[in-house]
Amino acid sequence: MNEDPCINQYFQLGTKDREIHLNLSLKAVRIYFRKTNNYEEFSELITGNVTYEMAGKAGWCHMHPVTVKLAGPTDKGLINFVVFCPMREIGFHSDHYKKNGEKTLIPGNESAGCIRIPDRESGRFFDLVQNGDCVRIYKRPFWRSPTFAGCIQSEHCSL
User: Fold this and answer.
1) Which runs of consecutive H residues, i.e. helices, occur in 13-128?
2) Within a domain: residue 36?
3) How many domains does the chain contain in total?
4) Global confidence as pTM
5) Which of 46, 85, 112, 133 is the S-S candidate for 157 at Cβ 3.0 to 4.6 Å?
6) What is the spatial distance between Cα 115 and Cα 154, in angstroms, rounded to a whole number?
7) C-alpha distances in angstroms, 53 versus 24, 110, 112?
8) For 92-149, what is each residue's pLDDT tens digit?
9) Over the Cα atoms of the chain, what is R_g?
10) What whole-number distance in Å separates Cα of residue 132 and Cα of residue 153?
């Protein structure tokens, strides 16, 4: 594992129970669990340039707290919506939406900013994360080690 260039920017290391890592290179997300020293991985994600740009503007090292969980469907039909950037309504959700009571695959292979998780896995992801969990976004050919550090809202994701 490579040395983490962000470690000195984090506070309250080892205090959180879970940490979420979104790796844009691997198109996967992991939820790390401190108490069991284990993780759950979700792959085949669909992301877009907005997520990449937002993470870059926040300095790549910033960790974003989960602010709200909405089982849905939301007013836009999103299902299992886990928000970590409320100002821009960016978060994780199912790759399906619900309209008129019917579930439909969201078209396209790039998102408008959110991270789409395959519908068959989105419910499990939704159930595992909690408000206040920290989301770390990076684009590397490898996974970073979790720090279980505290996190605060970025100015790019303020309420």
Assistant:
1) 49-57, 119-128
2) yes
3) 1
4) 0.91
5) 85
6) 18
7) 11, 14, 12
8) 999 999 998 899 999 999 898 899 999 999 999 999 999 999 999 988 899 999 999 9
9) 15
10) 10
